[in-house]
Structure formats: structure tokens, C-alpha cells
Amino acid sequence: MAKSKDAAGARQCIWRLLKFRQRSEHEIRQRLALHAYEPSISEEAITYFKDIGYLDDRVFAKQWIEARLDKPLGLRAIKVELQRKGISAEIIDELLTQKKQTLDEHAIVEKVAEKYLAAVKEKKEPSLRLKARFYAYLFRRGFSPEVISEVVQQFFKE
Predict the structure, then answer these.
(1) pLDDT digits (tens, 9 = 90+) for 14-51
(2) Domain-by-domain residue ranges, the chain?
(3) Cα atoms in the Cβ-side hemisphere of radius 13 Å centred on 14
């Protein structure tokens, strides 16, 4: 039996997607396009879910930031992820600015550093090489270069 490509079918598709986790409007548009829904039908269905409060990019971004900080990731990496999810720059900047005021990135980087160094301690790498790999690891996790430099100096006092 063929799937219904009308607004009701699009709403049902969105409902199935939202059952698993909150999503951005951009993600929903992509998935509806993947299922070959017309853009006008997709917009109608998206508007329906926005009107009833089930689809909100601001709420999605806020939840995404909290979840990713538990990972832990730095604000720079989270910003890139949110951009890929199609969240507007204004929402990203506003929420990350709010989070930055209450976040102690230095403490988070120290915690990540302790865990990383405990895992590589047995490898007995030369200090300079380990220092470079350590810096690169923290940078890939999205932490700011300034905080990384402070923590690297703290852990590698020579």
C-alpha cells in the first residue's frame, strides 16, 4: 500500500520522528524531502507542529546544548553541531552566551584532561609528543584554545 503524500501523511511522519527525540525544523524538512513530500505540504505540517508547541528550534537547541555538555564537549563544537542541525545563528549565539556565563569551561577541561591522561599514562610517550596529542584531543572536543593552553601548562609543568 502506498504511503499517503498529503498533509496528514506528513504530520504522521513528523510525529514518528518526534517520538524518538526533539528535532530541529531543518532536520524535519530534510526528512520530509527524503520521503518525497512536496515543500508546500511539508511547510503545512511543520507549521501545525510549531503551532501546537511540539517543534521549536529554541527548545531543541537548549536541550542539545545540555546533552552535549554532559558528553562533555566545548561550546565551539556544540555551535558547529547546531549549525549543522539548521539552527539560526541568532538562537545559537543567544543560548551559548547564556550558557557561557554559568559554565566553568576550565573545570570541564581539567576533568576531561585527567581522564585522558590517566588512559594514556601507561603508553609512556615522550612528553612533547603527548603534550601535542593532548592539545589536539581537547581542541577536537571543541574547547577554546585559551583554556586548553592553560590546562596543558598546568598538567605539563616542566
Answers:
(1) 999 999 999 999 999 999 999 999 999 999 999 999 99
(2) 7-51, 57-102, 105-155
(3) 31
